Amino acid sequence: MLPRYAFATLSYIAETFIFLYVGMDALDYEKWKTSTLSFWTKMGLYGIVMFLIAIGRVALVFPLSIISNYLHKSGGESTKISGHHQMVIWWAGLMRGAVSVALAFKQFTHSGVTWDPNNATMITTTIVIVLFSTVVFGLLTKPLVDHLLPASSSNTNTRNPRDPGSPKEDMTLPLLSFDESASENMSRARENMSMLMDRPVYTIHSYWRRFDHAYMRPIFGGPSSDDLPTV
User: Fold this and answer.
1) CA–CA separation, 8 vs 3, rounded Å?
2) pLDDT (tens digit, 0 to 9) for every residue of the chain, 231 residues total?
3) Among 87, 97, 103, 18, which Cα is nearest to 54's?
4) Nearest to 224 by CA among 176, 122, 156
5) Residues contacting 86, CB < 8 A, separation 6+
6) Residue 92, exposed/middle/buried by CB under 10 A (0-12, 13-18, 19+)?
7) Of 84, 102, 110, 86, whose CA–CA distance to 15 is shortest?
8) What does each C-alpha distance from 219 to 140, 149, 164, 213, 215 come to in angstroms?
9) Which of 102, 153, 199, 210 is 20 to 30 Å apart from 226, CA to CA?
10) Is residue 227 classed exposed, middle or buried when 0-12, 13-18 and 19+ CB atoms within 10 A define those classes?
């Protein structure tokens, strides 16, 4: 189990640094200035690249899904990839990420710098595609899943935020409450401070998981905290 979590941590750290690099490089005026294409030519280029990505995903996802369904036809309907699942797989794969950025910078820059207009165009196009696909397609993935796979979305957490044990109720635990007496608030504060001092890493990670489950996952999607592996 240790190698699994070690490699997962290294992968997460590397991807985080690459996306930080994308964010900083998106504000690098020199690369955008070096590219000599006009605004509308760039817009057309971005559209063509996104179209080719979508076509490439279609050419891979649907034929491979058909082959998989044919090979597992003896397993019944439960082993088949439905049309709606294929659509979700296709859509989710449209998001470009760390690998695209790393390959583009490796091929078209020297230590992150380029003065060639064509190379600068490749870098800026990659940045635009990554940012656009991650933000736009990422935000639309959960509504698409809710629409195409309502049975799956109905299994997610639907508890009232004010119900005990709900994610948003859990997020209020470390905070003071006007609905409770001063002694209860002081007791709650002492308990949380004691837990933070005794196990700081675990406590911070625990509240981050609660925040992620209560606010981030309902917007961006992802498995519930009950489905995540525990360390």
Assistant:
1) 8
2) 567 777 778 877 877 777 777 777 777 777 778 888 888 999 999 999 999 999 999 999 999 999 988 888 877 777 788 888 999 889 887 877 778 888 888 888 887 678 888 888 888 898 889 888 888 888 888 888 888 888 655 554 444 444 444 545 455 555 555 555 666 656 666 676 776 677 777 777 777 777 777 777 776 666 655 555 444
3) 87
4) 156
5) 61, 62, 65
6) middle
7) 102
8) 9, 16, 22, 10, 7
9) 199
10) exposed
Look up residue 180 and give its amino acid.
E
CA nearest to 148, candidates 95, 92, 93, 220? 92
Of the candidates 81, 57, 56, the residue with the CA atom closest to the CA atom of residue 71: 81
SS3 call for 176? coil
Instruction: Identify the burial level of 127 via C-beta atoms within 10 angstroms of its C-beta, where 0-12 means exposed, 13-18 middle and 19 or more buried.
Output: buried
- Rounded to an integer, what distance in angstroms lies between the CA atom of residue 140 and that of residue 88? 11
Question: Where in the chain does DSSP place strands (E)?
Answer: none
Amino acid at 89: I
What is residue 161's three-state secondary structure?
coil
Residue with tokens 């003071």: 176
